[in-house]
Amino acid sequence: MASKMILCRCLMVILGIIIQTYCPVSSRPLARRDADNSTSSLRAIFRDWMTLHGKSYPLASDEYEMRFQIFKENVNYIEALNAKPGRSYKLGINEFTDLTHNEFTAIYASGLKSVDITKPKRFPASASEKRFRHESKTASPLPNRVSWKTNGAVTAAKNQGNCGSCWVFSAVAAVEALNFIKTGKLKTLSEQEFMDCAVPFNVDPCTGYDLRKVFDAITKVGIANETDYPYTAVRGNCKLPLPVAATIDGYDDSYPRNDEIALQEYVATRPVSVSINGAAEGFQHYKSGVFSSGDCHGRVETNHAVLLIGYGTDPDTGVDYWKIKNSWGLGWGMAGIGMIQRGGCGPQGHLGIASEGLYPI
Fold first, then answer.
1. 258 catalytic per annotation
2. Dist CA 107 CA 25 (whole Å)
3. Going from the N-terminus, what domains does the chain have, and what CATH number goes with each?
4. 296 flagged as catalytic
């Protein structure tokens, strides 16, 4: 009987973590530990969290104790921020809760070079951009809300794993969306193909790369389905040729930088690959709501690529948002989807979201 009660208690703890991981911002806050036994109860949660996320730290080892202390500090941070009034977003436990901010940044927010938003890049307007600008001037007003996920153009969020390969996930997600817009068919395409076949031998694709190179390669040879070339999070031998699942005609990176209104016009017509500051405080633990950054100065380091899939206004808080698809798995955000505040942070936007972007054509 006692063993059954212990099993039931453990299952309830796991269920509590799962509920916190997937519930929206209006749900109950992260379960608080008993005030008289907080450390021991948190250790039980940590052990169940390890099982849930496939983590393996030998009990009583130095590594176990170190990870537990990091986990504890992160949970305390999450609870403290969620308790503050007036926040438009919530944080939660996820697979990154045992990582320090520096560790997380080194792996998951280092896939792109920084961008100096005070000196934005400028490109000559392409024919497609000129055509778009002409059409947008005569088009009807922008819709108040756009969601390419609701429209069916966005595949489920994927997980780049312990590899700084956000660049390829953002680019491939943009191609998946464009292919749906053109053909009406949603296909899950391969990131691994470019990890193995399109990156120079002397470059480690897990330390970051230029997503323009992905668009260049797809323009030349197309892209395979993910089922034909699954992701491994490490570089392997190139397995081409394989059946081509989708193609593009090129890409455009010439829309105005540091202009959220211009970005909104483009996102109304297609998803856009953008770079953001994935190392912003708290973003590692983001769970739901509209995330905002207090760093709105003249320079933002963008170090992570995501796909911008829509915009709107949060009905609960009245805060305008951008909607992104991330590549940190289904446990981050709302099944891998996040919302970032739109407007109110200078021309570059929150997390530098308007500082640099491009899209396939």
1. no
2. 27
3. 101-120+140-360 (3.90.70.10)
4. no
Tell me the pLDDT tens digit for each residue of 79-126. 999 999 999 999 999 999 999 999 999 999 987 643 333 333 333 445
pTM of the model: 0.85
Q: Which of 166, 197, 206, 345 is catalytic?
A: 166
Active site residue 53: no
What's the half-sphere exposure (Cβ side, CA atoms, 13 Å) at 210? 8
pLDDT digits (tens, 9 = 90+) for 200-253: 989 999 999 998 999 999 999 999 999 999 999 999 999 999 999 999 999 998
